Each structure stands twice: as structure tokens, then as C-alpha cells.
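Running this now, will post back.
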Amino acid sequence: MKISFIGAGSMAEAIISGITHKKIINEENIYVTNRADDMKLSSLKEKYKIQTTYEMKALLSQTDIVVLAVKPKDAEEALFAIRPFINPTTLIISVLAGISISYIENIINNPIIRAMPNTSAAIGKSATAITYNDKVSQEQLHFCIKLLSSIGNTTIVEEEKLDAITGLSGSGPAYIYYIVEAMEQSAQEIGLEKAMAKKLIIQTLIGAAEMLEVSEKSPEDLRKAVTSPGGTTEAGIRILDNKQVKDAFIHCIKEAALQSKRLSQINKINQL
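Update: finished.
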């Protein structure tokens, strides 16, 4: 099994890290390229013992899977660059936001899987959604799930849901980091040392996430269980309600999903 990465950014590295750590594909059969960043390719080669090249023939000859991990604006250029070197059964896995399966099919009519990981893939904790076209075999689908499971959990969805998933879990880590920024700033303002505050915040997040995973209670019920009448938590929640923080987060996720949809439409128009 040979896999070739077009693009060598953080998402490509996260997947490479996962598949080498789990030994899903041997290092000598993992190839990667980028536009012109020799330093990045050298770093990946040294760190993961994989193959790097700018030669398309060497990169794509007899490859079973091509992972598209370039910037969405560079998708068309990348697809035309690889088209002469792949066979009709080569599986294309795209991790590009806003690039539809039909967009790719208009250039390369191959088996195609769209995947939407998030940045937690770097530590093997991504929530990844995938969708695929009718050319993908069951064997290819199962291997892709195995591949992406090396960076977290994988869920099969309908393609029309990917914009919503992009807004929710694709961008989701940034929303959590945003909350942590606010918690760290407030900790400083109430007199806590930065290192101590960070440790407390991280453990609080881990504990809350595990409670959500193992408890049969809803998030609302879990919140109410720690919100005693007249207590400190109630005082804090009252401020969040007054500032309409819940509404703001709902708005935030809806807007991110809409932006993903807008990008899809822009790319579709540009292809006409």
C-alpha cells in the first residue's frame, strides 16, 4: 500500500504521525510533497522516516491513495498537476474545506472521499467526518476509516452535512481555546498565578469532557447539578445569561457553517 500526500502542512503531518505511530502503512511507502518548502519536507523526512520528492512521477507512480492537503485556493492547480500520473482507481482523500466531491470529479473522476478532521488530529483526538462518491469500493472505504481512525474518531455523513460539521467540530477547537483565553485572563485579574491557573483550567476541561462522555445526563442537567441556588456558579451563569453568551455561541457556529457553504459556492463559480 502506497500513500502520497499533496501538501505538507499541519493536517498532513497529523495524519502522517497517526499512520506511522499506528504502523498502518510502512514509512517507505509514505510519500509527501509541497510547493517549494524544502525545510519542511526535510523535517518530515527526518522525523517520520518517510519519502519526500518534487518529482510527480516518483510521487504518484503506483500509488493507491492520494491525500489532498493543500490550501483550498490551490486545489485546482494541485488536481491538474496530479491528473496525468494517477490511474482511474487511485483513491483521492481530500481534507480541503469548501471543496466538494463534484468539484474534484470535474477534474479527476476517481474514487473520492472528503474528510473533515480538526486540529486535534495532531494529538490523535480529531472528530473527523467523511463522505464519499459511488466509485469508492468497500475495501477503500474501510481502509480510509482505519487510516483516519489513527487521528481520532471517524463518522460517515452525507456530504450536505459537511458545512454544518465544519462549523461545529472543524472549527470547534478554536471556540474552546477562545473560552480558555477568557478563563486565563479572568484568573490573572482575580489574582491567580498563570501556571497554576492553566493547570486548573485544563483539568476542569478534561473532567467536564469526560463527564459528558460517561454520564447519561444531558449537558443542561449536568450544569444544573453544580448550580446551587444562591451559590457561586449561579452568580457566574447569571452573567453569561445576561451577556447572551449562549446565543453568541449558537450564532458563531451557524456563521462558520454558512462561511463553509459560501466557500463551496465560490469554488463552484470559479470552476465554471
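Strands lie at 3-6, 30-33, 51-52, 65-68, 91-94, 112-116, 126-132, 152-156. More later if anyone needs it.
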